[in-house]
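Provenance

Sequences were taken from public entries as deposited. Structures were produced by running a predictor on each sequence independently, with no templates supplied. The record for DUF6286 domain-containing protein from Actinomadura chokoriensis is shown for reference.
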Amino acid sequence: MTAQAGARVAKEPDSEATDARKADRAARRTFRSRRVRPALAGALLMTAAGVLTAIEVISTALGHPAHVFPYGWVRDAHWDSWYVLAIFAALALIGVCFVLAAVLPGKSRIVPLHGQDPSLLMGVSKRGLKRTVAAAAGGAPGVSDVRRVRLGRRRVRVVAETPVREPAGLDAEVTEAVRDRLDRLGPVPARTVQVRMKHREP
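Predicted structure for DUF6286 domain-containing protein:
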């Protein structure tokens, strides 16, 4: 029984790490941008094309073509004509764009947060994360104002102001304050911190 208990204890860290990785993957999938607008535009275009095609086919079958599409030139067109190839290339390019829009992730407004439970997902808005970073940088000693916070996928850039003429080492303190706040918050993926200090007279 002692050996069994010891084996279970030894596996607990691995189990927690596995759950954490699952939680991070689930959070990324959940907060991933769904690209609603491109999907809606594609659906509307396909619906309109289908309706117009149906009108043309039905009207032609009834003996009164509606001539929605100017397809008279098709009779004299050749498959190797430049304009025919250009039309097919344009249609293929549009199709590739829609496929890429559906497959590639978009820019989400929510940043997933690191968790331990795959069934409990948390996130923070990009604006909220920027405000958190700005508050952490602004609370560091010697910082009078935070001019700009840029949030990248792997990096956070902070531009802060200080009345100190020679702020030697001040950027390292601000970097540490921001990094500590990010470590406690746990955004996914983890981001490095880059701070630039600018002197400004009080």
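Strands lie at 110-112, 123-125, 145-151, 155-162, 192-199.
The two ends are 70 Å apart (CA to CA).
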